[in-house]
Design goal:
It contains 8 helices and no strands. By secondary structure, the protein is mainly α. The chain has a single domain, classed as Vanadium-containing Chloroperoxidase, domain 1 (Up-down Bundle), CATH 1.20.144. The longest helix has 28 residues. The radius of gyration is 17 Å and the shape is elongated. 44% of the residues are buried.
């Protein structure tokens, strides 16, 4: 399986690498280095009357993601990143030092998307576009295996959905 995933990453390097993407994708990936893009979105939504349930849903999904992805799964699984195996890969960003599985960038991105979708916000569509580009950037940058990105998307979807459902119950109990 690892050889198959490596062939996907190598295909991306051989066929899609170009100056434009080399400049743009590191910057896009950086917007989610610590979930910044999604945290900022949650805060903005929390500050706007009529959008607060969406912000609360995203925030809750991100907290669930932080715990499940970064605190539990990454240390538990401890998977090496693909550039460790292929030392010839040219990295465009500083080598991440944490474990590879699952992709935290992807998980946080999809947590925000699914929290927005489940809570009923129309913002889930542009968020999905951003999440897909962020997820692809992790492959392009050679810092995640395809299965890391897939697992991140699935984990993010689950915790985003759960975050929205939790906030729905909390807000219902609070009488909002």
């Amino acid at each position: 399986m690892q050889a198959f995933e490596l062939s996907i990453l190598d295909w991306i390097q051989a066929h899609l690498r170009c100056g434009f993407l080399d400049a743009v994708l590191p910057a896009i990936s950086r917007t989610a280095d610590h979930g910044e893009l999604w945290i900022i979105l949650a805060v903005i939504l929390l500050l706007i009357k009529g959008q607060r349930k969406y912000g609360a849903s995203v925030a809750c999904g991100l907290v669930l993601d932080l715990v499940s992805c970064n605190i539990i799964l990454k240390p538990l699984i401890g998977r090496s990143r693909p550039f460790v195996l292929n030392e010839l890969a040219e990295l465009l960003i500083a080598a991440p030092m944490d474990a590879s599985f699952p992709s935290g960038h992807t998980a946080a991105s999809f947590a925000a998307v699914f929290a927005l979708k489940t809570a009923g916000s129309p913002l889930w569509k542009p968020a999905l576009a951003a999440a897909l580009v962020i997820a692809f950037s992790r492959l392009y940058l050679y810092v995640h295996w395809p299965s890391d990105v897939l697992a991140g998307a699935l984990l993010g979807a689950a915790v985003g959905w759960a975050g929205a459902k939790i906030m729905e119950k909390v807000l219902r109990k609070a009488g909002r």
